[in-house]
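I am writing to request your help with a piece of structural work I have in hand. What I wish to show you is a protein chain and, alongside it, a tokenised description of its three-dimensional fold. Could you please explain, in whatever detail you think fit, how the structure tokens follow from the sequence? You will find the record immediately after this paragraph.
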Amino acid sequence: TTQRFLQFTSIGFDHVIPKGWDHILFIVGMALSSLLWRQLLLLVTTFTLAHTLTLGLAMIGVVEVSARIVEPLIAFSIVYVAIENLMTHQSIKRKSIVVFLFGLIHGLGFATMLKEFEMSPDSFVTTLIGFNVGVELAQIVIVLGVVSVLLTLRKLKLN
């Protein structure tokens, strides 16, 4: 139903902003890794596809990984992206592969949280889509925030 969709859109958004510092830091790192719009769009889309895939698979029981494994891997993904941004200049192809792999892990993190809610078979799809829409909206807000700050800094530097 529409009410459930909106409820889980809000829950998905809230899981990232303000509660999901791990996801926020990863998305900021990903956004900082490419300041070209096309490349940034590719990275965000790749991350979305990956975490949507594992979120869906985990929710239907195809994939199950303990949060004790997933959470440290998410932390590692943040550190890895930060170090990669500071130390190397990778091709967009390599960045996309890395973002996809880490997106798979982040999807498992989203699933861990979403599994805490009761879902009947008839509300499963609505719940899953609503939650994912909320996550995506939060990601868009973060990316737009990073890009806005960078454009402002660039403008100040030019003046």
About this structure: The two ends are 52 Å apart (CA to CA). The chain has a mean pLDDT of 90. Helices lie at 2-16, 21-32, 37-59, 67-87, 92-114, 124-158. The CA atoms of residues 153 and 159 lie 10 Å apart.
